[in-house]
Amino acid sequence: MDDAETERVQVSFVTKDSKFSVSNYPIYVQLDSGRGDLSDMVKSLLASDHASEDANSGPTPAEFEFLVQDELLVGSLRQLVEDRGLAMDAVLRAEYFPRRSAPAPYAELALGNLVSCVRARGRHLLVGCYDYSVAIGDIDGGTELSLKLPDAHEKEVKAVDWLTTTTDGQGDADSSCEFVSAGHDQDCRIWRWEAGAARCLAVCKGHASSVLCAAGSPGPAFGHFASGSFDGQVKLWRSSDEGTAAETGGISHQSKHSVPSRVPLRTLAGHRDAVHAVAYAGANQLFSGGADCSTRLWDVEVGAESALLRAPSAVLSLHSRPDGRALLAGCAGPQPRLYDPRSSGDTLIACFNAHDTWVCGVRWCPQPGSQLFASCGCDTVVKLWDLRCTKAPLYELRDHSGIVTSVDWSETGHVVSGSADCTVKIFKADLV
Amino acid sequence: MSEIKKQPIESPLTAPDEYDYDSSDDEDIRNTVGNVPMHWYTKYPHIGYDTEGKKLMKPDTGDQLDDFMAKMDDPEYWRTVIDPKTGQRIVLCDEDVQLVKNIVRGRVPDPNVDPYEDHTDWFTSDTMATPVTAHPPSKSSFVPSKWERLRVGRMVHAIKMGWMLTGEQRAEARRQREAAARGDNANRFYDIWDRQAGDEDEAIRRKLPYIRPPKKAPPTHYESYNPPEEYLFDDEELEKWRNQEDYERRVDFVPTKYAALRRVPAYPGYTSELYERCQDLHLAARVVRHRVSMDPEDLLPKLPAPRDLRPFPHLRVLQYLAWPEEAQDSQQPLPITACSVDPSGQWFAASGAGGRLAVFELTTGYRAWSAQLESASEGGLVSAAWNPCADRPCIAAGGAGSGRVYLVATDRCDRLLASRFAEAWAATSREQQQQQQSAATWTIVSTEASANGAATTKSRTLATVQLPTAQGGVTQLAWHRQGDYFLTVSDSGSLLVHRLTTRSSQSPLGGAGKKAATAAVCCAQFDPVKPVLYVAEKARIQVYDLAKLTKLKTLKPNARALSCLSVHPTGCHLLAGSLDSRLAWFDLDLACTPYKQLRIHSDGVRQCVVHPSLPLSASVSDDGSCLVLHSRVYADLLENPLLVPVKRLRGHQVGSVGGSGIVRVTACDFHPRLPWLVTGGSDGRIVFYSS
């Protein structure tokens, strides 16, 4: 009996959703119980409440997630208590909320070759492929591609990104939007997608080696995008049409047959090796990460480096949180790294114990205030993470047979991933 | 007796003062004998004299019966004592008894004295407002005493003169006296056998340090007084023993059996044996053998831990078949024969035994280009090397059976460089249509692009170099750092150096006529800095100066079948691997023998590479493993290179198809700037490792 007493801990259940609230009076819980046991316990508490109140609230969710002492419960309570060194006689505060349903395979797009980059915006997927093509797919469109540009580049397409979004976010036939693509042919190309067809607006020439990454500035008002190249340079380009004549010294490259060329607005030189990732954090701040094991923060207007974040190995992917408060970096190592770029001292916040090999892509959930992000790696797995749990991912999506080169998360709650097995897979994930 | 009972004499203590009441002295019996022992009067009837000088008669003490009666009847008997002065009985009062008891118990005799009465602290430790004594301190309490000074002076003088001893001297003298008292003989006689004597005595006694004599062998069954039967001599042995000389005998006595120990006679050889033993000890020189006690761990060199030597490749990132379609066709995939990373580090070329050459993207494993240059029946490609000069983007691949070297231009580089190289190639091709004397036949592949002047930058074969047929197929191919020269080693062990700009080939070790003078070449490498050529023969490495055309030195790697060479980017160090599973690191400025030999593979070493910029080396072997070495070279000439094996990579064993034995690792190459490594195996797979 004494042993049983010591193996228990007091838990107080609280929630922010008044629909599922139960009494927060501490309850003795077995120390070995995990998330499922706590969920059953809350459900039985709710059931007894409903029986007494004659059930005027809605149906109870199937499962709950628990934040015990602000950490997402993954294993048993014992692990958490031992890892955090909590006192056994303390009352643990367990905040619970309905569990998201597991991401389910939703659709699959077959491409001609290795998919190097996939970007989702609204319902639309922008896919860069190593068969020199750029394609646009629809999340709800099944296996059909909305648009395929077979010879968008002279060589493999390495990166794509949206520049402007469609006006209504639905991508109707009469709306137009622009996107950029870049590849091993050392050029970036700006495209306008309009009325079911895409037209190349400009070819951005200037890089001396393969362009490995491209990112459009957030918001349509800023009108530029950044690209990083294997030669170690980050270049900024104007994405809108205005003022391009001034850039080229008044020489008009517009002719009837050829596509106009564009020169870089600004070159940010500082990396000593290839630049593998660029990411905007606000209109004026640009992160770039490269094989010289560093992430650099650039002031776009001044064109100067303003901060340097060190990494243990080459930085392969970067994504800044929509509110600009945290930066995710995927390295040539097994751990996605979370930085706080605003802090002056130790900027590294956490490392997530994730993949077997390289982390090729990291992407925040676009939902404002969301704590979720996705990572993909050379071990063919896409993992969904909660920031509050660094030990284990929420979900592992094992559907690809080749390395997963890129992952993105659309506002509609779909996780899309592009892989070397020549497919783009779409998973339906619940964002709530 | 009854009188005494009636008139018990009271104790002096309890007796009331005679002056308190008016009584006469008559009744008080007083013995005025004086201070003399009372036993003087034992033989007399009197005991003394009273104050008037009359004899004081002894009182009647009664007989034993009276005494017994008194004991029985008188309750005061136990406290009745006899006054020795007067011989009268006295009954002690209670105070007297208490006094006696106190004395017996060791207490204070007088019960009125309180030894523990309360202490009154007349002089407190607290400083009071007014002094207890009012007189001022005297002058003498401040002035040192003159008489004491004089007395101390006298004592010092006495100590100096030796008249007086200090405490220490007295203690020493006492010790000596005690020692003398302990043993009189100790100081008088010198004990030459005294083991306790100090080192000084030892040194006086001996010229040489004492060496323990060898121990005598313990007795065996022969020496037993009752030996087993087999140890006893039979007649034949006894005869033989007698005929032998002393030095020939196995035992120098005849073993004899006795019924009991008491029947054993005196040993006749006792004295002579002792004498011989003394002679042995006296004449035989003795030496001290020092036993070295050493921990075997101390003999191993102290190597730093691998975790302190990061970064090095240890993480298997990618593993894929180079030609998956080929693997589908045939059950046994054809092995990768060579890997070569391009100077930018973005791409790498791999050649296969099936005759294919392919270019892969390093970080994704994407195959960007592939071509069938030779058929597999000809032996396939044996070597592929990317031109290390970025200005000349081309790959050289050697055919194993055909003896052809293919020069393939690649578009996997800056397109400006590619087009520039294509133009330059086309221009020189037009100029040099006429071949000058060349050791190999160059065939320029003409393209339609060169005809109309616009050079194409697509991947295509620029030229083929056909080695002389007598030399057989190509076994090895290596570029010079500047990308103009490359060398080929052929089956027959001949070495040719080819030049890209003049499209000519020559034999630097002499022509065919002189070939007999040089042994068969296994592999060769250019020095990256100096005009020096390293040529590995079967068991030695020759170093040639290409500018002066002389031999500089011969390195002896202590191996029987060299298979690969790699020169350190500084040109001062050389790594050589051999098929007898050895790896030798040469410090070329130091010696012609290896600075360090490593036997870290269990089978032949196929290729070894030194990283172009980081302190790393790697070697791949037929035992299926790739070994990464930390190889740090110091600019300080006095400091030796640091070679530490840090990681054994077995990526080809993981998930290998077929499972038929060990997958041999045949090729490897480093990324030019990062600690990334790519290896190719006999299973047709390429494995990419990163730090």
TrEMBL record, chain A:
<dbReference type="Pfam" id="PF00400">
    <property type="entry name" value="WD40"/>
</dbReference>
<dbReference type="Pfam" id="PF08154">
    <property type="entry name" value="NLE"/>
</dbReference>
<feature type="repeat" description="WD">
    <location>
        <begin position="268"/>
        <end position="308"/>
    </location>
</feature>
<dbReference type="InterPro" id="IPR036322">
    <property type="entry name" value="WD40_repeat_dom_sf"/>
</dbReference>
<feature type="repeat" description="WD">
    <location>
        <begin position="352"/>
        <end position="388"/>
    </location>
</feature>
<dbReference type="InterPro" id="IPR001680">
    <property type="entry name" value="WD40_rpt"/>
</dbReference>
<protein>
    <submittedName>
        <fullName>WD_REPEATS_REGION domain-containing protein</fullName>
    </submittedName>
</protein>
<feature type="domain" description="NLE">
    <location>
        <begin position="9"/>
        <end position="80"/>
    </location>
</feature>
<dbReference type="GO" id="GO:0005730">
    <property type="term" value="C:nucleolus"/>
</dbReference>
<dbReference type="InterPro" id="IPR019775">
    <property type="entry name" value="WD40_repeat_CS"/>
</dbReference>
<keyword id="KW-0677">Repeat</keyword>
<dbReference type="InterPro" id="IPR012972">
    <property type="entry name" value="NLE"/>
</dbReference>
<dbReference type="InterPro" id="IPR020472">
    <property type="entry name" value="WD40_PAC1"/>
</dbReference>
<keyword id="KW-0853">WD repeat</keyword>
<feature type="repeat" description="WD">
    <location>
        <begin position="204"/>
        <end position="237"/>
    </location>
</feature>
<dbReference type="InterPro" id="IPR015943">
    <property type="entry name" value="WD40/YVTN_repeat-like_dom_sf"/>
</dbReference>
<feature type="repeat" description="WD">
    <location>
        <begin position="397"/>
        <end position="432"/>
    </location>
</feature>
<keyword id="KW-0539">Nucleus</keyword>
TrEMBL record, chain B:
<keyword id="KW-0677">Repeat</keyword>
<feature type="domain" description="BOP1 N-terminal">
    <location>
        <begin position="41"/>
        <end position="313"/>
    </location>
</feature>
<dbReference type="Pfam" id="PF08145">
    <property type="entry name" value="BOP1NT"/>
</dbReference>
<keyword id="KW-0690">Ribosome biogenesis</keyword>
<dbReference type="InterPro" id="IPR028598">
    <property type="entry name" value="BOP1/Erb1"/>
</dbReference>
<dbReference type="Pfam" id="PF00400">
    <property type="entry name" value="WD40"/>
</dbReference>
<dbReference type="GO" id="GO:0030687">
    <property type="term" value="C:preribosome, large subunit precursor"/>
</dbReference>
<dbReference type="GO" id="GO:0000463">
    <property type="term" value="P:maturation of LSU-rRNA from tricistronic rRNA transcript (SSU-rRNA, 5.8S rRNA, LSU-rRNA)"/>
</dbReference>
<protein>
    <submittedName>
        <fullName>BOP1NT domain-containing protein</fullName>
    </submittedName>
</protein>
<keyword id="KW-0698">rRNA processing</keyword>
<keyword id="KW-0853">WD repeat</keyword>
<dbReference type="GO" id="GO:0070545">
    <property type="term" value="C:PeBoW complex"/>
</dbReference>
<dbReference type="GO" id="GO:0043021">
    <property type="term" value="F:ribonucleoprotein complex binding"/>
</dbReference>
<dbReference type="InterPro" id="IPR012953">
    <property type="entry name" value="BOP1_N_dom"/>
</dbReference>
<dbReference type="InterPro" id="IPR036322">
    <property type="entry name" value="WD40_repeat_dom_sf"/>
</dbReference>
<dbReference type="InterPro" id="IPR001680">
    <property type="entry name" value="WD40_rpt"/>
</dbReference>
<feature type="region of interest" description="Disordered">
    <location>
        <begin position="1"/>
        <end position="30"/>
    </location>
</feature>
<feature type="compositionally biased region" description="Acidic residues">
    <location>
        <begin position="17"/>
        <end position="28"/>
    </location>
</feature>
<dbReference type="InterPro" id="IPR015943">
    <property type="entry name" value="WD40/YVTN_repeat-like_dom_sf"/>
</dbReference>
<keyword id="KW-0539">Nucleus</keyword>
